[in-house]
Amino acid sequence: MISVLTVCRELPDNYQLYGKPVAAFIFEQNESIEKLGVEYEYYLIKKGGLKGYIFHVKDFAKFLRDNGYKYDIIHAHSGHMGILANFQRSIPVVTTFHGSDINNLLTRLLSIFSLILSKKNIFVSKRPLGKSIVKRKAVVIPCGVDFDIFKPMDKNDCRKELGFPLNRKLVLFGGRFDIKVKNASLAKRSLENLPNYDLIELKGYKRDEVAKLINACDCMLLTSITEGSPMVIKEALACNCPIVSVDVGDVKELSKGIDGVFISRYNSEEISENIVLAVEYNNIDSRSKIEFLDKQKTATQIYNIYVDAIKGLN
């Protein structure tokens, strides 16, 4: 049994799924890897920003001492977390870079320390890896999708269950309206001249409800300013849901060769036109094109990274 300490941000109550104070994709990823013989504990960062990480340096050291440095691996999620995790040198560190920690120049420079000191570095897509100053010890492993939850379902059945009208065009926004980086203002402007269309906010739904929500809607819309490898896009693809997205994160790379995905400029008129095209698009089969994203396959890849890090292999 491999013992892993996950170091990540603590989420406030209104952002939580599963009743857990960690990002859903981290929790789901860990659940999948646990099946392979891994046990997880969590060290959660409560204060954000660089000052928040500095604040936790002494507390993290005390946490490790109190637990007898019992972990085989520390898995840090983001470059900042990787810096904190590498303040100790007794336990090998694996750091996952999700995109925002490489997209921003300042955080990219700070992340150099984590890139150099970590035993292994995981990038969720090729784009942030391409921006990384240090590429050795790096591998691309996207966050996997739960194909048992995210699958095609009957649209009308899902709408009835969620209480949505059957006679409206529903566009699912890929996030919460109040998260600035999601760029909801552009999405709202894009629907201003589409009177029979409703923009649905992805907020307050449980995980299985998100799958039904995707199937209830006519298309997914992503207008984010920055992303790494957005889970909502992969989940929409698994549900055979048409997508309109700006060229952000790995969306263009991931959707290459898949019909029913419309990549747009940051232009409300173009996005509006593509929404109309996407909503009318039928017989999309994106699910079969992303089978490599099955969460159990990506879990095996990460497990192998742990084994190599413990053995000291680069």
Properties at a glance:
314 residues, alpha/beta, Rossmann fold, 6-stranded parallel sheet, 14 helices
Strand order of the largest sheet: 2-1-3-4-5-6
Structural class: alpha/beta
Mean pLDDT: 90
* CA gyration radius, whole angstroms: 20 Å
Q: Total number of β-strand segments?
A: 11
- Which geometry do the CA atoms define? elongated
- Taken in chain order, the helices and strands follow as EHEHHEHEHHEHEHEHEHEHEHEHH
> Which stretches of 5+ consecutive residues score pLDDT under 50?
none
Fraction of residues in H or I helices: 25-40%
Characterize the main sheet: 6 strands, parallel
Find the CATH superfamily of the largest domain. Answer: Glycogen Phosphorylase B
Strand fraction band? 15-25%
| CATH-derived topology of the largest domain | Rossmann fold
Q: Could you name the CATH class of the largest domain? A: Alpha Beta
Count up the domains: 2
CATH architecture classification name of the largest domain: 3-Layer(aba) Sandwich
Termini distance? 22 Å
Number of helices: 14
